[in-house]
Amino acid sequence: MISHFPLRKFISPEFVFGVGARKLIARYVKNLSARKVLLITDPGVIATGWATEAAAELEAKGISCITFERVTANPRDFEVMDGAHIFKEAQCDMLVAVGGGSPMDCAKGIGIVASNGKHIADYEGIDRILFSCPPLLCIPTTAGSSADVSQFAIINATDQRKKIAIVSKTLVPDAALIDPETLTTLSPELTAHTGMDALVHAVEAYVSTAGSPITDMFALESIRLIGANLRAAALNPSDIELRCRTMLASLDAGLAFSNAGLGAVHAMAHSMGGLLDLPHGECNAILLSGVIDFNFDTVPLRYRNIADAFGIDTKHLSDASVRQRLIDAVLRLNADLGIPERLSTVGVCADDIRSLAANALKDACMATNPRIPAAHEIENLYDRLL
Ligand SMILES: [Fe+2]
After folding, report:
1. pTM of the model
2. Distance in Å, CA 201 to ligand 1 centroid
3. Residue 212, pLDDT above cutoff 80
4. Cα of 62 to ligand 1 centre, how many Å?
5. Is 80 exceeded by the pLDDT of residue 3?
6. Cα–ligand 1 centroid distance for 314 (angstroms)
7. Which CATH code fits 14-183?
């Protein structure tokens, strides 16, 4: 029998969501039978105190813990290789990541190399990991990357000057402790960048060619929560209610995109991050309006639903008006969050566009964009946003 519903799997880790979730760390590590933990974090998270608190909690419960903090934004391949070396040398048996997307992606990379050998760049692409990784527990401290629930790891392959996407079921963490209280130390700038990253995850998952009714539900709820709360959260960093809503939006977006895939915005942003080392969320935010414009006519009803979720009353509007209102709303949100309108403001030059477009076309995320672009169309998109 033929059905209109395609076969779709849905993968998610066990997670605990709510204020205080992070305090369950020792119980979860013990449940996974670990004796020695490599805790991956970064200097920014160390400064907030969340990583130190996590390490102290483990030590207090008799679990040995080594902290690895040499992780930068857009985590590099050599940081992954260093971490994997320490993991093996110190005979660790579990990974805990405390931080945003960079420490979490680095921890996933360390797990791949620790179990599979070879160089991290050898695992680029979909389902290329043979042996399962050591147990991984994530405590996210941003509301954006959703690496704590996703089957993605994005690593900067420094010799190729590009970001590689590694996608595998083995990269879904064993558990995530998602605690909105960790967001209270997040700067307005990082709140804006990571919040826009989450919005793009939700939008791209909703228009993805690999979506399903289940991912649609999470994507639309995420768009609704971000449209209604991100501005206020950036203005009121210590408002725990707003932080709960943006953390939930990020979780919803993560469950959607981890299963539905992403699209042209991420493919183009990965290319910019690899070549020019730019902040991921900020790149996504600047690119979003241009990609909506490019994709709109392929899936107009999908974008109408996105506009509705974003708080735009589309009832009596033509498709052309919905497109313009949605683009205007994204540009207004960016402006309110202090995100620039032009790529040149963040350092992109006309000379970069050809390589940026070439790498974006090869990125794994491009495969699920609703409209497959030609090279000159991606070059035009970069050029128009320059
Ligand atoms: Fe992202």
Report:
1. 0.95
2. 6
3. yes
4. 36
5. no
6. 27
7. 3.40.50.1970
Cα of 147 vs centre of ligand 1, distance in Å, is 9
Q: How confident is the model at residue 6 (pLDDT cuts 50, 70, 90)?
A: confident
Tens-digit pLDDT profile for residues 255-269: 999 999 999 999 999
- Which candidate, 216, 240, 263, places its Cα nearest to that of 360? 263
197 CA from centroid of ligand 1 (Å): 5
- Which residues in the chain are classed under CATH 3.40.50.1970? 14-183
Beta pairing class for 152-157 and 162-167: antiparallel
Would the pLDDT of 2 be above 60? no
- Residue extent(s) of CATH 1.20.1090.10 domains in the chain: 186-385
Q: Which fold has domain 186-385?
A: Dehydroquinate synthase-like, alpha domain (1.20.1090)
